[in-house]
Amino acid sequence: MVNNSSNALDLYAKVEDLLGVKEAAPRLYAHYFLFLNPLVTDRLLDVGCGSGDFLLQMQKALELPYVKGIDLSPVMVSKAREQQIDAECIDLCDMNEKFDVVTAVFDMLNYLPKSQLKTFLKCVASTLDDGGYFLCDINTLYGFENVAVGSFIEDDKERFLTVDSDFENGKYISEFTLFEQEGSLYKKSQETIRQYYHTVEELVSYSGLSLVLSDDVDLYELEEADKCFVVLQKV
Question: What pLDDT digit, counting tens, does each position of 59-118 carry?
């Protein structure tokens, strides 16, 4: 379902730790925790689970009986399993289980163009039990235009990463170039990763779910919120 290729997703998985995601994640995770904490939640599915950090933290903090993660990147699924997370490389629309909470954390929805977002949200609705909640976050327009664009360079002696990004007409395109040390040589990998701007109104319209909550999130302490935390419910 995801518009980006599996190679692009796997490349992102290799360099996620260089992008500052783990440092910013706790501020975002707090919004999920504060909403989930008072709920009686038995079964939680995280779509695009990545390395499983979010699921691991929620399971420990909330003492959830059953959590599961799915991701289209085999590299990410492998990392999640290393953390003892029940993770599977499968598309959400191929799932046969039902959950009372489904989450899509840290940019997951941004990777879907409008046509795929509509299909994805219909699959979310069919995966939820009646009364169940869908928790997600999306980039604000300010986040795309003022936080994500530009050039980024990072290295850790064994890897050298450059990211060149631009945002135009609702589409964010990033060119990832990675050099990985292999002995005395470096292996080059290059992929294009695309993200898309969506509104809360579109999430409600496409999903058929009811809007419960829409909160601004400021991950980087800038002038405006760069993300929006959204909760929808199947009623």
Answer: 999 999 999 999 988 888 999 999 999 999 999 999 999 999 999 999 899 999 999 999
Helix residue spans in the chain (DSSP H): 6-15, 21-36, 53-62, 74-82, 114-127, 141-142, 200-207
Domain 6-140+199-233 has CATH 3.40.50.150: yes
Can you give the residue ranges of every domain in the chain?
6-140+199-233, 144-194
**Bridge partners of 162?**
153, 177
Name the architecture of domain 144-194. Single Sheet (2.20)
Q: What is the pTM of this model?
A: 0.90
Beta strands (DSSP E) in the chain are 43-47, 66-70, 87-88, 99-104, 128-139, 150-155, 159-168, 171-182, 185-196, 210-217, 227-233
